[in-house]
Structure formats: C-alpha cells, structure tokens
Design goal:
This protein is an all-alpha fold. It folds into 3 domains: about 5-85; about 90-175; about 185-270. It is built from 10 helices and 2 strands; from the N terminus they run αααααββααααα. It has helices at about 5-15, 20-35, 60-85, 90-105, 110-125, 150-170, 185-200, 210-225, 230-250, 255-270; strands at about 135, 145. Strands 1-2 form a two-stranded antiparallel ribbon. Strand 1 and strand 2 (about 145) form a beta hairpin. The two termini are about 30 Å apart.
C-alpha cells in the first residue's frame, strides 16, 4: 500500500462515528504537514472557517472528507502518469471501477456480478487462479455469480497483476520503488521523500515527541523543502536548523528524519 493509500484509509476511519476527536485533529494536522509541498492550497481545505472566528477549531468529519478528496485527486494524477509509463491504463480502470462499487453503499450484487464477469472475460486467462476463493460456483467448479463481497478480492488480484506488469518492465524491480513518484520532475520525487519523512515523524510515539514538537519540526522540514532552488547555502542553513532542533529537543527522532535532511544536502550540493 502506498503512502497515499495509507492516508486515504486513515481518513475513512476518521469519518466513522465514534472516532476520537483528538485523533481526528491530529490526522488532519499530519496530512497538511506531510503534503504541504505536494498539494497546492491544501491548507485552504476548510474554506472561510479560520482560527479565531468563533467557531470550533476541531476538525469535523466533513473536513476529513475534504482532505481525503485532495489525496484522491493527487493519487489519480500520479496513477495516470504511472499508467502511461507502464501501459496499465486498462487494468487500473477496472481497479477504479471495483473501488467505486465497493465504496457505494447502494451497490447491488447484480451490479457487482456484471462487473465481475466483465473483468473475468478479460483477465481469467491472464491471472493464474483468478476465480480461486471468489464467486458462487456450480457443481463443476465454475463461477456462476459474483457478489459485492467478492469485489475487494477481485481488486486485489488486479493490483497484483498490475504489479507483475511493472516488475517485468523494471527487470524484476518491485513496483513499490515507482508507485509514489512517476513524474520526471525532480521536485515531485523530493516532495515524496518529504512526505515519507513527515509520515514517519508523525508515527513516532508521544514519549519521543509531543504533538506540539512534531508541529515545530514539521515547520522546519517544510522550510528545508522550500529552501531548495534558493542555492546550497540556504539549504545548508535550513538543514542545520533541523539538526540543531533534533539534537536539542528530540534526539531519538534523528534516525527518522536525518535521511531526508542528508538527501536534501546531497541534492543541493551535487555530492
């Protein structure tokens, strides 16, 4: 599962009834920090509601849905680039159709059955064991009907098939190395590295870093990211600020954050 998929899944959990409000607030802050340099205007997802206007600063389920929508848009954009590069447009299209029916509460078994047979007609011979563990079978072992509950398994088989296409194109390299950034623009790849660093940072336990400290560090990491393109001296200054902060306040977080800092310096200096 990619970093984007993980955050989208977290958003799904955060919109459920009974989800702790403090965790919903923390998730929103984490997403904004992680994708600040990747998704334009992500900080404006709450519209005109701003801190200090008299309304609650808690993040609502609708706020999380807005953030989820921005993550989905980014994932779709990256997926299009990915599909163009590896010729996966058709299988990715069917994966998306499965996801649409899975997420739609009004999806009937009839609709799932129709899509299941459409996919089977194309991929039955391409995917070994396509029907294993899915569908209602007759006395001869042939699938005679698919249900909505089969769609997640069908989606999984299609994703594995897509991964095989990528592995073949990469000479056996796992697709995980290319699923996050497919752009030829270096800034996108670097932004993904920042996202990974942010995600790992926010996953650190409170015993290592408090939420306030994570916000402080997120600000410094964003400043480091923004310094790229302004010359190596600016980058080195921003990197030093991150390092000083870590050694002063959260030395246990150094292994999590410093790989991104080191890469930033190497990129700026050409080392």
């Amino acid at each position: 599962m990619s970093l984007l998929d993980e955050y989208i899944a977290k958003c799904d959990e955060a919109t459920s009834d009974g989800f702790p409000q403090n965790e919903r607030n923390a998730l929103a802050r984490e997403i904004i920090s992680a994708f600040h340099n990747t998704i334009p205007n992500i900080r404006h997802y709450r519209g005109a509601r701003i801190t200090g206007d008299g309304s609650s600063n808690d993040h609502t389920k609708e706020d999380i849905k807005q953030l989820r929508g921005k993550l989905l848009a980014l994932r779709d954009e990256q997926q299009r680039e990915f599909d163009e590069k590896f010729g996966c447009s058709v299988v990715s299209g069917y994966i998306k159709k499965c996801e649409h029916l899975i997420e739609d509460s009004d999806t009937t078994d009839e609709a799932a059955n129709e899509l299941g047979f459409e996919i089977s007609s194309i991929y039955f011979e391409k995917i070994d064991g396509f029907d294993n563990g899915i569908g209602r079978v007759d006395g001869y072992g042939y699938v005679v009907a698919y249900k909505k509950s089969d769609l997640p398994k069908i989606r999984g088989k299609l994703m594995e098939y897509r991964d095989e296409i990528v592995r073949s194109a990469n000479g056996g390299t796992p697709p995980a190395t290319v699923t996050v950034a497919q752009s030829n623009h270096q800034s996108v790849s670097v932004a993904v590295d920042l996202n990974v660093a942010m995600s790992q940072m926010w996953a650190l336990p409170d015993s290592v870093m408090t939420s306030d400290e994570k916000m402080e560090l997120a600000k410094l990491l964003n400043e480091l990211e923004e310094s790229k393109g302004e010359g190596k001296e600016k980058v080195k200054k921003a990197a030093k600020a991150v390092g000083n902060w870590l050694f002063d306040k959260a030395i246990e977080a150094v292994p999590t954050v410093m790989p991104f800092v080191a890469q930033s310096i190497q990129t700026a200096t050409g080392a």
